[in-house]
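User: Predict the structure for this protein chain, please.
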Amino acid sequence: MKNLAEISAKYVGAQYKKGADSKKNGFDCGTFLYGIAKDLGFELPAEGDPIHMDNYLTLWEQDHELAKELTIRYILQHGEEIPPSRAFVGDILFICEPKSGDTFFGMYSGNATFIAVFARSGVAVAKIGDYEIRRAFRLCQAQKR
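Assistant: Here is the predicted structure, written as structure tokens:
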């Protein structure tokens, strides 16, 4: 698996924007997760799946809540749930912001940090201790140990 720290560095600073899918235009948590997974060498979901990235943006434009729900459903169905304390680099985390109660997902980046798209600051690396990690999932076979 490629180095997540190196890959994610090119995304840091991109703005948050619903349905956008590039550093230039911004990301939402779904498009960011799709993009970084692809850069790591696996597709989320696999090509041919109804919510593959090729279809995600179209679906997002039509019904962004449904797009988010289908992405979460994919992770729940295809991922191996693991205790958050046993997360490896690249594992998907369901995160809760304690003050606002907002939930989102990001990717574990090692050393008790994760990378995600935040509504206020865009793509950034954050300390796990500042958030509540509700669930963790391993999607990539190469990560399964």
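The two ends are 13 Å apart (CA to CA).
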